[in-house]
Specification:
Length: 139
């Protein structure tokens, strides 16, 4: 049996962040009753599989998975950054793909004047990406 390696720790940390982000997303929608906008759904599409795939990869210390999930995390971060920009830069709202339902520039939370749900997702995706980048070589 292999001993626990430092690079495996980064897989576990990436998985933990993905799980917390997934549970946080579900908390905001199912407990607090916040209806996700279109961009929120796109971010969920990238985050939810990470919680499952990274869990399996961390359990088996499979560093080969990094090349498959790192693009999901990076694209999710780009999506979150765009969504956050829609919230904080009013000039982008006219170019928004959100036309039905909840507008994408709506801010359910705005802690300290800058922490919104897309910002939280962005931080999670960036942290996951960094941990995956560090763990990519394995040991």
């Amino acid at each position: 049996m292999n001993s626990f390696k430092t690079s495996s720790l980064y897989l576990y940390l990436a998985w933990l962040i993905a799980v917390v982000a997934t549970l946080g997303s579900l908390y905001f929608s199912e407990v607090r009753g916040f209806i996700p906008c279109e961009m929120c759904w796109y971010q969920r599409i990238f985050m939810y599989p990470l919680a499952l795939i990274l869990g399996v990869a961390a359990y088996y210390s499979d560093h080969r998975i990094v090349k498959y999930v790192l693009p999901l995390s990076i694209i999710g971060a780009i999506t979150s950054l765009y969504h956050y920009s829609l919230q904080k830069l009013p000039s982008l709202v006219t170019a928004s793909p959100c036309t039905d339902g909840v507008p994408c520039n709506m801010q359910y939370i705005n802690w300290f004047g800058f922490i919104t749900i897309p910002f939280l997702a962005l931080v999670a995706f960036v942290c996951i990406s960094i941990f995956l980048w560090i763990a990519r070589k394995g040991e």
